[in-house]
Amino acid sequence: MITCAPEQVQHLPLPPLPLPASGATRRRLLAVGVIGPGRVGTALLEQLRAAQPRLLRTLGLDLRLCGVVASKRMWLDCDDAELNSRHGGAQIWRPNDLDAFAAHVRGNDGRHALLIDCSASDEVASHYSRWLAAGLHVVTPNKLAGSGPLDRWQAIRAACAEGARFRCEATVCAGLPVVQTLRDLLDTGDELLAAEGMFSGTLAWLCNRHDGQLPFSALVREAHALGYTEPDPRDDLSGLDVARKLVILAREAGWPLSLEEVDLQSLVPAPMAALSREAFFERLDELDAPMAAALTAAREAGGVLRHVAKLDREGRASVRLQVLPASHPFAHTRLTDNVVQFRTRRYCDNPLLVQGPGAGPEVTAAGVFADLLRIAESLAVHA
């Protein structure tokens, strides 16, 4: 039997929730150290400083910048009390010492501590497992840990078993939620069947602009002038950076893929790969004929030319220039868009796509910042 309450009772307002007593807000202190104050690191420091008052006010999260490490020197808050407001203007610095830096950020008071590696250093990546084992959380856009030696990656994962967290969202498509989307699928019981994507904003831009009106070499020079390429465009044209991102995704899915196993097709002929950067630029027009032929073949097939990374359900991985039908989702990308397509047990007939700008220091820094906040949300409050 369902009994209805009297009408006058039904319309009584709910009592208000009790407000916390003044000063009773429980705060979480997170000590942060930043390694690599380059373009991404500097953008991140600016984002952290701008957000500090809001995060403290709304979430009770006290982000405390304890130090910054450059290639040869480091600045610590114990030497410069104004470090949270600056780092480039700090007058007191010490020689670079990564272990001493990590120990300083961790402190000896049981606080939560996190290191952010914005470098592209293999040496820094080699420290991750020790830092994690010591209880330091690690966030990074550095692809060398996730795509380097498999045993090092396994050591990083094993070190997380003690409770420290490792996050690397910005290693794949800058600020796009690619790694997080994959993790959400897997953590909720889905199974990855295949993945493919356009992981290079530089190569996406070149493919979008390569319509036959200008030689491919002219487009490479334009992209270089606009800052879309690395200082040496071969770092983009080789596809190695894309292959690293594919390896990272495979390992996140639990597939023990190594970089050497990726079938990588470089856009740079072998004789040009060994040249100095200046000599490479002088011979850049040697790329025009093969790229023009590839464009002609794509048009004759009624398709478009795109640079695509693929991972299939057998664990085979490839990175290459490919002709796609005009109806393919990748045929409609714009400018420097990255796009990733996940085919899973749930998303089998209609794959899940993540698409958007995948390059730039601000969006990459935002991806790192988002990882930091995800870790902070899970931290216990210290009395």
Beta-strand portion reads 15-25%
Strand order of the largest sheet: 4-3-2-1-5-6-7
CATH topology of the largest domain: Dihydrodipicolinate Reductase, domain 2
Number of strands: 13
Mean pLDDT over all positions: 88
Name of the CATH superfamily of the largest domain: Dihydrodipicolinate Reductase, domain 2
Low-confidence stretches: 1-24
Order of helices and strands: HEHEEEHEHHEHHEHHEHHHHEHHHEEEEH
What about the largest sheet? 7 strands, mixed
Shape: globular
Separation of the first and last Cα atoms: 49 Å
Please give the share of residues in helix.
Answer: 25-40%
Query: What Rg, in angstroms, do the CA atoms define?
Result: 24 Å
Tell me the name of the CATH class of the largest domain: Alpha Beta
> In terms of structural class, how would the helical and strand content be classed?
alpha/beta
What does this 3D model show about the protein?
This protein is an alpha/beta fold. The chain has 2 domains: 28-174 and 363-377, NAD(P)-binding Rossmann-like Domain (Rossmann fold, 3-Layer(aba) Sandwich), CATH 3.40.50; 179-358, Dihydrodipicolinate Reductase, domain 2 (2-Layer Sandwich), CATH 3.30.360.10. The chain contains 17 helices and 13 strands. The protein has helices spanning 7-10, 39-59, 98-106, 122-125, 128-133, 143-147, 150-159, 170-173, 178-187, 201-209, 216-225, 234-237, 240-252, 270-273, 277-282, 288-300, 361-377, and strands spanning 28-35, 61-69, 73-76, 94-95, 112-117, 137-139, 166-167, 192-198, 263-264, 303-311, 317-325, 337-344, 352-357. It has a 7-stranded mixed beta sheet with strand order 4-3-2-1-5-6-7, sandwiched between helices. Strands 9-11-10-8-12-13 form a 6-stranded mixed beta sheet. Strand 10 and strand 11 form a beta hairpin. The longest helix has 21 residues, at 39-59. It starts with 6 loop residues before the first helix and ends in a 6-residue tail after the last helix. Residues 1-24 have low confidence and may be disordered.
